[in-house]
Amino acid sequence: MLLKFLGHSCFSLSIGATSLIIDPYLNENPQAVIKAGEIKTDWVLVTHGHHDHMGDAVEIAKRNNATIITITEIARYCEARGAKTHAMYIGGKHDFGGFKIKLTLALHGSSIGTDPIEYLGQPCGFLIFTEGKTIYFAGDTGIFGDMELIGRLHPIDLVILPIGDNFTMGPEDALEAVKLIKPAHVIPTHYNTWDIIAQDPRVFKNEVEKETGIPVTILSPGDTFSIDS
Ligand code: NI
Ligand code: MN
Question: Which residue segment(s) compose the domain that 184 sits in?
Answer without folding.
Answer: 2-220
